[in-house]
Design brief:
The protein contains 5 helices and 9 strands, in the order E-H-E-H-E-H-E-E-H-E-E-H-E-E. With 210 residues, the protein is an alpha/beta fold. The mean pLDDT is 97.
Length: 210
């Protein structure tokens, strides 16, 4: 089987990156190699994780570019240079504009059941705090394709997480992130198998090839 090339984009500690590294190394995510890690911050710990795993890294900072278009062009230049098949955002905190050829080739994981609690400002602990403040009984995690709007691309996979009466943002985060660690690699694997069929805003998961 031809090995596919993955790019991971991050802005922080790189826990999503580490999960993917571990799963590729132990055989739970097959057919993929992380070709490059792109960080929007020069001191993100995710860069350390990548370097320890022998993965090339690139830093593309928003403040080094005149506007979002120049910033986006610099990102795409790196993605093109490494000839990546799929891009996954793992704690990436910057808006960038995808050219048409990268639509349906960039994924993100969000710590809620989109379209609820998505959009600008809903990231990290802000999401867990909002979910609890609204008295929700269930939340979860969503893997979706990225487009040029916040958290608005077609949904690939979702998994629900029940909210307990005594949950705090931290305890809820622990359970949601455990789900994220499962469904993100699953979505990547489905993409690699050619089993994701996009129909407008819907993603159909096709059965395995016989």
């Amino acid at each position: 089987m031809t090995e596919r090339r993955l790019a991971v984009m991050l802005s922080g500690s790189g826990t999503t990156l580490q999960n993917l590294i571990d799963r590729i190394n132990d055989g739970r995510l097959t057919g993929w190699r992380i070709a490059v890690v792109i960080s929007s911050l020069s001191k993100a710990y995710g860069l350390v994780r990548a370097e320890q795993a022998g993965i090339p890294t690139r830093i593309v900072r928003k403040k080094d570019h005149a506007d979002v278009e120049a910033f986006s062009a610099a990102i795409v230049e790196q993605l093109d240079a490494f000839e990546v098949d799929l891009v996954v955002e793992g704690g990436w905190m910057c808006l960038w504009h995808l050219p048409d050829r990268y639509l349906d080739r960039v994924m993100n994981v969000h710590p809620a059941l989109l379209p609820s609690f998505g959009g600008k400002g809903f990231y990290g602990h802000h999401v867990y705090e909002a979910v609890l403040a609204h008295g929700c009984k269930v939340t979860g995690a969503t893997v979706h394709f990225v487009n040029n709007e916040y958290d608005a691309g077609p949904i690939i996979l979702q998994r629900a997480v029940a909210i307990e009466p005594d949950d705090t943002p931290d305890t809820l985060a622990d359970r949601v992130q455990a789900v994220e660690r499962e469904i993100y690699p699953e979505a990547i694997s489905l993409f690699g198998q050619g089993r994701l069929q996009i129909e407008g805003q819907r993603v159909r998961v096709l059965p395995p090839a016989s």
